[in-house]
């Protein structure tokens, strides 16, 4: 659990960044209806959660630096005995102050009424620009209200500033408490992947493996996956975001599982690939070991100061060389890299930031240059080779071999920590787990 004092520290830091003449206004995620009165499971907006730890809908955070009556104002739902009988307890305004450390809390219904006064005299409004149409409209109306009172001496804000760059730069660097939670998400994910490997045999359906994953997530306190689980067997292993998961798994198939638990709103994102019958064929093993060697080399390059793109360059080089060695690509390796001949087989990048969002926020480039890695960043390393049968000129013995290997890595002072290092990964480890 992240302590309430850590959220308070983040709010202070954000206020320091925007300066004392600004104001931050950030809405919670809306509750989304599936049909009738049935809702999708509620998931708080990651930015809002990062600053509040508050998990109810219909809430708005306001940060007004140096405001006399308090800097942190939360608008949230009122207590409502009837609704609480149906939907469960709410924090209410008292809880917002006592448990969530708001300086002041007001009913959500008073937001439109109170915002103009909170904005008056502030130079700039910092909020997620253009994300929520209703909210954009509300803020414009509030600004106009302040403008209409200029003769009374009120000063309207002169600028809307997107909050994303400053807030997302903070989110990119994980605290010790966040890393502990992410490790837990990874550890739960480890159990799920191992369980699915052990369960797998020819003749079961992809969704049966998905059920094993979800069972392990949920019984360990991760109610939901961090994204739709990908369970692709045979030709489906070559579809990057395959989520239908409805085909029967055949003897001789490779199975690619890309699945991660979401624990206390933090994501794990792990891929493992294994043979349905527990033994890799010669071709499957050749491709698997090639992807693995590129992943291990990429991981080894991770350390403070290394460029974000180093991992990708290493992966491209090793995969291209390997495809040439296997006779799948023909030509000079440097020329093949130059003309991106690997793209039909490896068409994505080496990974992405990981955190509250599975594809987490944060810039990959600073001005024109790829970013240098720094301690506290967490990201995935996930090379793959996907040989679908429609790539021309590839012998059919390679067809339907799709392999991705994805781990979650933290940059440390000295180098790196692979949070998911315990999940079986070598051919020997995977075959041993599946033999049990
Ligand atoms: N699970 C999506 C990805 O690996 O990026
Ligand atoms: Mn993934
Ligand atoms: Mn990923």
UniProtKB/TrEMBL annotation:
GO cellular component, one term: cytosol
Catalytic activities: Release of any N-terminal amino acid, including proline, that is linked to proline, even from a dipeptide or tripeptide
EC number: 3.4.11.9
InterPro entries: Aminopep_P_N (IPR007865), Creatin/AminoP/Spt16_N (IPR029149), Creatinase/aminopeptidase-like (IPR036005), Pept_M24 (IPR000994), Pept_M24_MAP (IPR001714), X-Pro_dipept-like (IPR052433)
The protein's required cofactors: Mn(2+)
Start and end residues of each Aminopeptidase P N-terminal domain: 2-136
Stored SMART domains: AMP_N
Keywords: Aminopeptidase, Hydrolase, Manganese, Metal-binding, Metalloprotease, Protease
GO molecular function annotation: manganese ion binding; metalloaminopeptidase activity
GO terms of biological process kind: proteolysis
Family statement drawn from the similarity comment of this UniProt entry: Belongs to the peptidase M24B family.
NCBIfam families found in the cross-reference section: PRK10879.1
Protein name: Xaa-Pro aminopeptidase
Organism: Aquicella siphonis
Species lineage: Bacteria, Pseudomonadati, Pseudomonadota, Gammaproteobacteria, Legionellales
């Amino acid at each position: 659990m992240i302590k309430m004092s850590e959220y308070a520290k983040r709010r202070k830091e954000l206020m320091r960044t925007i300066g004392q003449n600004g104001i931050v206004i950030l809405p919670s995620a809306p509750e989304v209806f599936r049909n009738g009165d049935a809702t999708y499971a509620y998931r708080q907006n990651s930015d809002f959660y990062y600053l509040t730890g508050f998990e109810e809908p219909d809430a708005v955070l306001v940060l007004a630096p140096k405001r006399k009556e308090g800097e942190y104002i939360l608008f949230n739902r009122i207590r409502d005995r009837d609704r609480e009988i149906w939907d469960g307890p709410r924090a209410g305004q008292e809880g917002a102050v006592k448990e969530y450390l708001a300086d002041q809390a007001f009913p959500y219904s008073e937001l439109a009424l109170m915002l103009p006064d909170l904005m008056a005299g502030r130079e700039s409004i910092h909020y997620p620009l253009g994300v929520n149409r209703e909210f954009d409209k509300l803020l414009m109306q509030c600004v106009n209200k302040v403008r209409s009172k200029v003769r009374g001496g009120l000063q309207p804000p002169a600028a809307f500033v997107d909050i994303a760059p400053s807030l997302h730069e903070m989110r990119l660097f994980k605290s010790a408490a966040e890393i502990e939670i992410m490790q837990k998400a990874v550890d739960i994910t480890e159990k799920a992947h191992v369980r699915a490997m052990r369960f797998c045999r020819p003749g079961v359906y992809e969704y049966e493996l998905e059920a094993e994953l979800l069972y392990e997530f949920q019984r360990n306190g991760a109610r939901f996956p961090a994204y739709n689980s990908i369970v692709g067997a045979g030709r489906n292993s070559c579809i990057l975001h395959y989520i239908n998961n409805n085909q029967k798994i055949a003897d001789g198939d490779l199975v690619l599982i890309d699945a991660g638990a979401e624990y206390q709103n933090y994501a794990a994102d792990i891929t493992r690939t294994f043979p349905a019958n527990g033994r890799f064929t010669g071709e499957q093993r050749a491709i698997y070991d090639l992807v693995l060697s590129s992943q291990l080399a990429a991981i080894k390059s991770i350390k403070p100061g290394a460029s974000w793109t180093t991992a990708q360059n290493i992966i491209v080089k090793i995969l291209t060389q390997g495809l040439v060695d296997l006779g799948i690509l023909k030509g000079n390796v440097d020329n093949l890299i130059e003309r991106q001949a690997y793209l039909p087989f490896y068409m994505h990048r080496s990974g992405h930031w990981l955190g509250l969002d599975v594809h987490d926020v944060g810039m990959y480039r600073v001005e024109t240059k790829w970013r240098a890695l720094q301690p506290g960043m967490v990201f995935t390393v996930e090379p793959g080779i996907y040989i679908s049968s429609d790539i021309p000129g590839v012998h059919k013995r390679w067809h339907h071999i799709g392999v991705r290997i994805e781990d979650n890595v933290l940059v440390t002072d000295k180098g790196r920590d692979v949070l998911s290092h315990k999940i079986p990964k070598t051919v020997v480890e995977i075959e041993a787990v599946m033999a049990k």
